[in-house]
Design a protein that fits this description.
Layout: H1 2-12, H2 21-51, H3 61-73
Helix pairs in contact: 1-2, 2-3
């Protein structure tokens, strides 16, 4: 998940940097792809841990926030 978040941060740095709307749209799609990948991994990990009876403090609020933004926009 950290790998996807690092990629998201790198792509986000380029968000809306181009004068070309198509380039910016592609950047937005790349951001969404990384968020979806983070979501999949995060939910899988949390589900596994819950099944094992493990309750964790939420140290992934930044990832959850991104996921909620994408879900709200969908």
């Amino acid at each position: 998940m950290n790998k996807y978040f690092a990629r998201w941060k790198a792509v986000y740095a380029k968000k809306d940097a181009s004068q070309d709307p198509l380039v910016n749209a592609i950047t937005d799609e790349q951001l969404t792809e990384q968020i979806v990948k983070m979501r999949f991994e995060l939910l899988g990990i949390l589900s596994f841990l819950q099944k094992c009876g493990v309750n964790l403090d939420d140290h992934y609020m930044h990832v959850r926030h991104l996921v909620q933004e994408v879900q709200a926009g969908a």
